[in-house]
Amino acid sequence: MTRSIINLQTDLLRTFVAVVDLGGHTKAGDALGRSQPAISLQMRRLEELIGAELLIQEGRNLRLTADGEVLLSHARELLRLNDEVVGYFQRNAVAGVLRIGLPSDYAVAFLQGELTKFSRSFPDVTLEIHCDWSRDILDQLHSDELDIAIAMTATKSVPYLSRAWIERPIWAAARDFAVEPGAPVPLAAHPEGCDYRARMIQALDAAKMRWRITYTGPGISGLQNAVLNGFGISALTRPTLLEGMRVLDEKDGFPPLEEIRVGLFYKHPRLSEAGLKLVNFLVAQLDAASLAGQPGLGEALASGA
After folding, report:
1. Which domains, from first to last, does the chain contain?
2. What 8-state DSSP symbol labels residue 251?
3. CA dihedral (152, 137, 10, 62) positive or negative
4. Torsion angles phi and psi, residue 274, rounded to 5
5. 98 with 271: CB under 8 angstroms?
């Protein structure tokens, strides 16, 4: 018996993603050049093909069903691959301005790695880098002030999330730094609200180890200098570990730090050809890191993958 094959049309998937990302049928229609009734018709057609309800209207807002959340993740990837293939064969000159949001820790690795490579490959694309807290970066993406964002996220179900991976914070200290027995652990940290700061405090509290904040600052370079000059120890990622630092672990009496989930975010309907090129560039690095057995993009950058 021949199995019936259902082909999901990319225009239906594109409409679905646009409705979710832009928050409604009318805005999706404006972005795709279609009327609101046409968008509604395409959504009904997609639900018929899938055999499941994808969106629920709650007042003026739309909410994804459980099936809708599953399809959304796959739809983003299918559209990305479709547009990547089309872009390859069209081979149009890629130009424009891309606004990218990064946490300050990631900016160090990205500016030295992937964004530099991308700029060399596409010299007609201008990159504008905005460093901020993850929550503020996602707010800026939501309000269309950014095109692409890398940000920390507590859950998998976050709007505009394309890929997520795990990073492992590490305890970092100056090479000759020693914690006095019985004394509070001196911490160099970002201000309150930083995920790394929270993880240091949670880990030390759980281990019943006393601590005190000896340095506070928003920038990664200040934090690195505080560690290098012995003002305290801190939680860093491997790409931000500098010559003259050493890693502290259980052998040194320090509890492991909780992993951090990081994501790649963008609104597909708002993404330019240049933006799609950069997304594909970053996804390729994530896939390479995964195949190499590395946990995330930060580890890949640190190893030169």
Report:
1. 10-85 (1.10.10.10), 92-168+260-303 (3.40.190.10), 170-252 (3.40.190.10)
2. G
3. positive
4. -65, -40
5. no
Q: What is the pLDDT along the chain (305 residues), one digit of tens a residue?
A: 566 788 889 999 999 999 999 988 999 999 898 999 999 999 999 999 999 999 998 888 889 999 999 999 899 999 999 988 888 777 677 888 999 998 877 666 665 577 888 888 888 999 998 988 888 999 999 999 999 999 988 776 788 998 888 888 999 999 999 878 889 999 999 988 888 999 999 999 999 999 999 999 888 889 999 999 999 999 998 878 899 999 999 999 999 999 888 889 999 988 888 999 899 888 887 777 665 555 555 554 443 33
Token pair listed for 97? 């301005």
Q: How many CB atoms lie under 10 A from the CB of residue 159?
A: 14
DSSP annotation string for 165-223: EEE--EEEEETT--PPTTSPEEEEEPPTT-HHHHHHHHHHHHTT--EEEEEE-SSHHHH
Q: Which two three-digit tokens encode residue 213?
A: 């904040």
Q: Is the CB of residue 188 less than 8 Å from the CB of residue 180? A: no
At 169, give phi and psi (nearest 5°).
Answer: -65, 150
Q: How many angstroms separate the CA atoms of 245 and 234, rounded?
A: 11
For the beta carbon of residue 298, count every other beta carbon within 10 angstroms: 28
